Amino acid sequence: MSFEELLRVQSDTRTRVHKQVTTGKKNAKPTKATVKQQGKKGPLEMSAKKPVPFLRQVVSVTKKVHRDPRFDDLSGEYKPEIFMKTYSFLDSIKKQEKEMIQKQLKKCRNVEQKEKLQQLLNRMTQQEQAQIKQQKMRERELSLKRQQRELAKQGKKPFFLKKSEKRKLELAEKYAELKRSGKLESFLNKKRKRNAIKDKRRLPSQKDL
User: Which of 61, 54, 58, 34 is nearest to 45 (CA)?
Assistant: First the structure.
């Protein structure tokens, strides 16, 4: 091509682009992907000329189901005896942590840090006492179940204790334990003081008289 022909082609293309910009018309047709769907998971582009159907086509979305091992049958049945045997090594770790906190509490001079350590130590002792209490309750229930099995083997009708009777047995064991440790008198004195405070609150005040 000569130089004159090249200039003619360039001028033709410039005029064509200028007409498209001024008139707002485009010769290029949209692709099928932009008309139908932008990608696999993109929304569909529906034509405005077609009427909307009465029954919509609902696309089902796969919902992710979360599994809770506490309430799932796949995790097996919870048995406290097996659980305690499996995780018995945690008791030694907790004991070491408690001893370490006690040592830090003795060496600590900062008041705020000392209060935090004391609160942590109190929480650990409370958790330990609650664990011992639960273990004793389990042992008591296991002994009652053994008695019921023996009665059933002998042909006798097994008995089931009520909650009030279980509470009486628990109090009797607590009384015997306090008597063995020599803390029974102090426990009874505290109990009397608490009951006296409760009775004093229930009495009518001088303003009401």
Answer: 34
